[in-house]
Amino acid sequence: MASHRRPKQPSRTRVTVLTTAAAAAVALSANVANAAPSEKPSKDEVKAKVDKLYEEAEKATEKLDGAKEKQQKLQKEISSLQDNVARGQEDLNDLRDGLGSMASAQYRTGGIDPSVALFLSSDPDSYLDKASAMDQLSAQQVESLKKVQEKQRSLAQQRSEASEKLKDLADTRTELAKKKKEVQGKLGEAQKLLNSLTANEKAALAAKEQERATRATERVNLGNSKGSGRAGAAFAAAQGAIGSPYVYGASGPSSFDCSGLTSWAYAQAGVSIPRTSEAQANAGTRIYSQSGLQVGDLVIFYGDFHHVGLYAGNGQVLHAPHTGAVVRYEAIGNMPFQFGVRI
Questions:
Q1: For 277, what's the count of Cα atoms within 13 Å in the CB-facing half-sphere?
Q2: Of 63, 167, 237, 266, which has the fewest CB atoms closer than 10 Å, so is most exposed?
């Protein structure tokens, strides 16, 4: 006899879940269908974002330059200390050899001085502090032992100093790698944004930049700006770099970042100034009024002093602006002026 069973009905819970899921799917499909496509930013919006990224990259670049400068300084100091330690060790060995010769002579003539024997087998510091030991030594031996002590102390101090500087160097190299990665990241973001522009949009932005640079050049020529003294010589050197590309971390002679240009220009005039814009802000007398600026003065921009140029006269500055640009003139008013610095 055939069995007739009633089909099992789905549970109320299962029906509810399936119904809810189906409703959600329909709503999602409707939202996707009705959603407006994301709007592409205009070229001016892209330009604003790129300028911001370039500014952030330049901040990191100045920190990178500072870390590089510190690394070079530490490497020189460590090398000098290591040379001093090596020479000092040779001197100490000579002093010890001299005391050994004295001991040998005493032994041959009837016995070795007990204090000298003690010295030859251990550190002399503990014996020189004892008056009884001092009484048993000749004046020559006392003087030799004192020299050995002084040399040992000096070497210990120099070794300790070198060790600290090596640790500092390792930290500086870590900072250097971090800042380099940060700069590259900002520049990569900026390039990605620029690549999103059409050829016509890129051409329009380039034409606008060129027009601004041309106006600045005309104003400089109109003012017939010429500096005097070493500031004038630095400015003339910088003029010779007009058209050179901005490259982060570069300090000439064929490419520059902002502080790389100013430090290189002054070096051509026989004047050494610090490498970074922040340090250059403290390298001379500050001029807070733009009307008081003279051709060749440093001009510091932004509240954290992360950009610097050379005053070109007639309200213009000669500087290395940012990645993708070249050394050129620009109106001081295009950036937040802080003060000038007269070297």
A1: 32
A2: 167
Catalytic residue among 4, 258, 306, 322: 258
The alpha carbon of residue 165 and the mean position of all alpha carbons in its chain are separated, in whole angstroms, by: 17
CB contact burial 37-67 (16+ within 10 A = b; e otherwise): eeeeeebeebbeebeebbebbbbbbbbbbbb
Q: Is 322 an annotated catalytic residue?
A: no
Determine which one of 4, 306, 319, 322 is catalytic. Answer: 319
Pairing mode of beta strands 285-287, 316-319:
unpaired
Contact 59, 306 (CB under 8 A): yes
Q: DSSP assignment, residue 2?
A: -
Which pTM value belongs to this model? 0.69
| Residue 20 banded pLDDT, cuts 50, 70, 90 | very low
User: Which residues share a beta bridge with 245?
Assistant: 326
The token pair that represents 23 in the structure block = 């409703």
pLDDT digit string (tens) for 159-206? Answer: 888 889 899 989 999 999 999 999 999 999 999 999 999 999 999 998
